[in-house]
Amino acid sequence: MLGKSDDKDDRQTSGVLIQYLYELSDYLKERTMSKKAVTMAVAALMLAGLMGVHYRASGSVLPTSGAASDRTLPIYCVQTDEPKIALTFDAAWGNQDTQKIMDILKKHDIKVTFFMTGGWVDAYPDDVKMIREAGHDLGNHSQNHKNMSQLSDSEKEKELMSVHDKVKALTGYDMFLFRPPYGDYDNAVVTTAKKCGYYAIQWDVDSLDWKDYGVESILKTVTQNEHLGNGSIILCHNGAKYTAEALDTLIITLKDAGYTFVPLSELIYRDGYHMDHEGRQIKD
Fold it and tell me: Is 237 a catalytic residue?
């Protein structure tokens, strides 16, 4: 059934945490701490784990209800009563499947969003123009695909604007959607992106296509994802081994479930909105 999750990676992460807590408890006992002190220390760590962040198999972090209230979040999904979803492709390495993906999108008459690195733009300028001419969104994925949170604010801005200027020169289009590489961000990444005229974008449904588990894995991971719903943002990659092969069936399955595909530029709210603790964009 669509929306049901069976995330083995989440269970493995939970198991590692539990094992760590057991080992820590034994260590504290060896340090001759009192039983009460041991119990309080372990309980505090468990509470921190429950109220902190939830690590997903993609390696990125999804905020939870315990996220700090002063944290500035990118857009993970959008609250809407309409069954609209956005399909996105990160383009950083390789180009062998781009044309096949474009043909499938044209067949189903849907528009998506491609997040491109500066290196990809440099290597495949004709494809950048082709994507834009076909009516798809062009998004910024930084110049060098670095961990943005580890850069200075001036370096962050350079990573953004270098790609922006290249795409503007190629297509005349001013990009305004930015996806941080690796899903890595902090407050400064989001605020710097905003300063440069960008909305920082994450995802709430990760196809995990980059793991090359096969077509069936991609289909199951997306269509049975617990986060899939109205306003979802789906992450795929144009250079993954099985993505193009899975795409036709994935689109048909999601359409049959009642979803309509729209580019991110039509899904997100450009103004008059606020964010909840899960990174959901909500119209005021």
Answer: yes
